[in-house]
Amino acid sequence: EGIEEGLERGLEQGLEQGLEQGLEQGLEQGLEQGLEQGLKQGLDQGLEQGLEQGKHDEKTAIAIGMIKENIPVELIMKVTKLNKKTIEQLIN
């Protein structure tokens, strides 16, 4: 009976320690993967937004140049793909 109790106690302790270690490792790996994935998504989104803003800024600069040359708003709209309201705001 002493051997059985010792085996049972050893098994319980082994399982408990194994679960603790497994949870710690799983949590650590999960956090690392989550952080890595979040950083990648953030960088991708930032790059995309930056490119879109750059395109918009370029269109705005072209429109301003065309406005200075007294080119009609309708033509500026066709060339830059900016809407009439945005062009009118640049004029004023």
Structure description:
This protein has helices at residues 2-68, 73-80, 84-91. The protein has 92 residues and is an all-alpha fold.
Helix content: over 70%
Give the termini separation. 95 Å
Report the sheet-strand fraction.
under 5%
- What Rg do the Cα atoms give? 32 Å
Report a brief summary of the structure.
The protein has 92 residues and is mostly helical. 90% of the residues lie in helices and 0% in strands. The mean pLDDT is 93.
Note the main attributes of this structure:
92 residues; mainly alpha
Write the SSE topology.
Blueprint: H1 2-68, H2 73-80, H3 84-91
Helix pairs in contact: 1-2
